[in-house]
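Fold this sequence, please.
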Amino acid sequence: MTTERRVYVIDDDAGVRRSLTFILRASGYSSRPFVSGEDFLEELPHLRPGCVLLDIRMPRLSGLEVLAALGKTDQRLPVLVMTGHGDVPTAVEAMKLGASDFLEKPFADDILLQSLERLSKRLEDQAEDADRVAESNRKVQSLTDREREVLRGLIGGYSNKEIAFKLSLSVRTVESYRAEMMKKLGIASVAGLVRLGLRVNLAPLD
């Protein structure tokens, strides 16, 4: 299944918005233009993950101010900043505020599309990572309290004997819990169990 790639264009120049929207849609992106940073931030809670193409020089709310506001949210929206030619200090400031990349105007269409391709791929990878973590959390939550304690022991690097001692169990019982976890989670090795626990930041057994 192909993931829809979205780009939110924020620029106060109507001609620039039209031109970028045309280029993006012709290249397979879903594009939504915004006339100002205020309009974008107002809609931000309702926006789905995508890339942001942000003009740095705008009246009222500047691109830097938009970046600062965006940085206070948990939205997955990598930002590609558009700056004036030679305005490197502003571009550097934008990167410090969280921008992923910047382009100096005027820029060629292929340079824009190459940058957006990188950011879109990064966004898709992050979404996949988030899905994996969510699935791992679901699996760990399906374990009993005692199974989670044994898993924490494995994450801590302890042997079955050491885990048994710490939990006041027999070694055979620890082995039984470990085998049951593998069966329940569909994991074929201790290394797989450890990777699962680390993915969800499960604390090692003391």
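The chain has nine helices and five strands. The first strand starts at residue 6 and ends at 10.
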